[in-house]
Design a protein that fits this description.
The chain is built from 12 helices and 11 strands. It has 292 residues and is an alpha+beta fold. The longest helix has 19 residues, at 228-246.
Length: 292
Amino acid sequence: MAGEIITEIPPLSEKDCFYLVDRFKDKFTFPIHRHSEFELNFLSNCKGARRVVGDSIEIVGDFDLVLVGHGIEHGWNQHECDNTQIREITIQFSEDLFGETLLAKNQLAPIRNMLNDSSNGIAFPLSTILTVYSRLERLTKTDSGFNGLLEFLALLNDMAEAGNYRLLASSSFASVKPTCDSRRVQKIEAYIAAHYQEDIRLSELASLVGMTPTAFSRFFRLRTGRSISDYIIEVRLGHASRMLVDSTTSVAEICYDCGFNNISNFNRIFKKKKGQSPKTFREIYQHHKKLI
């Protein structure tokens, strides 16, 4: 391996519920990193910056609000952002803030679901940012005692209740197990996870759940919101992205190791889905990470 993503040790102590820092800066300098804590990151005046969360690489607008969970790589770099008054509010909190018993209560279901989804990294739309901005602003001015904790919990609830966030990293890149409640879909997902490197035929997938290929295609799209071919491609691209980040294996080898049978087709699909070629994707990570 050429190096590893830096693992940050956040300043959050075991006795604190959360850690908050509110700062202005003229450029992005911190590399792509990961840590065991949850992190909520709000940015303003950041138009043109490039956000990396797992295998999701996007150019952001004037505002950005992202929640990342345990262990997923993330970072922002300058790219085309020329604003010298970037505001960044970062809140970090540990996985055991709520405890399994409290988090299992019905009243916390929206927060529980949001925290589970944050394993992929989640981005919130401008409508949610505008809704929660005043509470976020109040939180920066509230002491870190009991009132601060209540304000923070209310912030998480407002974000979760909005419910219109978007998953960023693919599950195969983030090593997140799919959560569909359909047993037949779960069976198909498990099969694809085990055989994504091989040629997977629609007929064999349909036979696994006792359906005709046509009926199965309709069923899978209805339950997951995507076609079976798109799902297989997403799984393969997630594994390919992980190999690009974690290894020095050539792009051609990664192509065939992840179930693609044509390098030109792999490059075309990767660029269409990820916004850049496999080579550029790897270079973005290598340029913005540190050795440990």
